[in-house]
Amino acid sequence: MSYKNSGVDIKKGDKLVDIIKPVVKKTFTNNVLSGIGNFGAFYKIPLKSYKNPVFVSSVDGVGTKLKIASEMGIYDTIGEDLVNHCVNDIAVCGAKPLFFLDYYATGKLNVKNASQVIKGLAKACKENNCSLIGGETAEMPGLYQNEDFDLAGSITGIVEKSNILDKKNVKKDDVLIGLESSGLHTNGYSLVRKIFKSKKDLQKYYDEFENILGYELLQVHRSYLNIIQSVLSNFKINAISHITGGGIEGNTKRVINKNNKLVINWKSWDRPEIFKLIQKKGNVDEKDMRRTFNLGIGLIFIVNKKYSDKLYQYLIKKNETPYIIGEIK
């Protein structure tokens, strides 16, 4: 009996590290002090750029979007999904990302597939100016079936304490301005997989969105970092909501005060065809649609009414498609 015979192949793990090393290294900034392979990663804090710096951290996963990726044989985009999701979660607090760590767990390591996932992580990290400084690959036969896998990540960013977005600034009559999502992002896939159960379903082409369903479902979770930072440099924003699990209301309620009421005009934007298809094919109740999916709005700025028109026009100039979707009461 050997460790390999029990289902854990250390040589495969070493091979994966050799493949990803040069890819991961390209994400390093000058603040990264150690290379991949040490027991811990070292990152120099850019203190000179801040008077009173505060770390902002978040951890998340991709959920069962992984199963769609496996069915379609596309593994790089889910790495991008994970990084962008985590980046958005700290960006809406006012933070800029510093570094990222990932966790990849599987029943049987497929080096090719795993390397594609990590290449996707590295791509998104580079695009968000975030260093992929470490990670863990765990082969756990018996816990995961065959090549089934899970993916999670942790991000750490930094923000000047005085620039932290605080919901106490949200007031009555503030305006909600939404930005488009790129699709489902990383939420609602367990429901989707109950509606579209087979690989044949995923391979079907739909004229409504001019794409194969599986490809449409794998559209990369958009990063809003650049537009958030641009807006924060030019406007007084009271709060920002990243629309993930829980939908528009569930997530936006997290960044407003308990004595405030959220009023959404659900007809103020055109719902993308992919959501219409899901609702029709699955006979999904409207309330469930609203609390499960982003429905085409991935980010919401909450701003004082007197600044809303200027912000709206600014977003258009930045090639965004903004929607005034509601207000605070």
Q: Overview of this structure, please?
A:
By secondary structure, the chain is of the alpha+beta class. The chain folds into two domains: 10-163, 60s Ribosomal Protein L30, Chain: A (2-Layer Sandwich); 167-328, Phosphoribosyl-aminoimidazole Synthetase, Chain A, domain 2. It contains twelve helices and eleven strands. It has helices at 10-25, 65-72, 76-91, 111-127, 189-195, 199-202, 213-217, 225-234, 247-252, 273-282, 286-292, 305-317; strands spanning 53-61, 96-106, 131-139, 149-160, 175-180, 205-206, 211-212, 237-242, 262-264, 297-303, 323-328. The strands form three sheets. A five-stranded antiparallel sheet has the order 8-10-5-11-9. A four-stranded mixed sheet has the order 1-4-2-3, with helices on one face. Strands 6-7 form a two-stranded antiparallel ribbon. It is globular, with a radius of gyration of 21 Å. The protein starts with 9 loop residues before the first helix and ends with a strand. The model has no long low-confidence stretch (mean pLDDT 95).
